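#onboarding

Welcome to the new folks! Below is a worked example of what a typical request in this channel looks like: someone posts a single protein sequence, and someone else replies with the predicted structure as tokens. Don't worry about understanding the tokens yet, we'll cover that in week two.

Example request:
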Amino acid sequence: MKVVVAITGASGLILGQRLVEVLAAQKKKPYTIVSDAALKISEYEPFDLERVRSLSVELFKENQLEAALASSSFGVDAMVIAPCSMKTLASVANGLSDNLISRAAENVLKLDKKLVVAPRDTPLSLNAIENMRKLKLQNVSIVPPNIAYYIKPKTVDDLTNFFAGKILDALGIENNLYRRWG
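Example response:
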């Protein structure tokens, strides 16, 4: 299974890193794209770029439009953008293929493959809600990292695993990252 993980400049970079870690552990090493803004945010949040690089088939920066991922003929099976900034959400929703992240997402959409976005912002503006609506109309799974209190999280890792598990669920990838209800 060819999976792309895009990590953008919204807070919550550890979520993208955890997805890369879990996919690699399941023998589904992803192709990973990191935005310039994510690299800036990484100065303030836990994020290990070298670990992400080592667990990826290949690591790309968002300006690498010559990369194979920029072409729909590369043929990925699924893509997740986590965390997904509102800028990236708007770009994907409105078909602005102006960097490798939005271009890869456009390719996934036009081939009717699975796209999951984890928008990480609150509160939401009407523009953000409209952009999410546009994506949902294209069968994109929108998985905002909202806290589930029933899991009784004790650490940030508990929350990160819950969010990553929910995203993997949306991708159709089995996992046991969180305690399920019931």
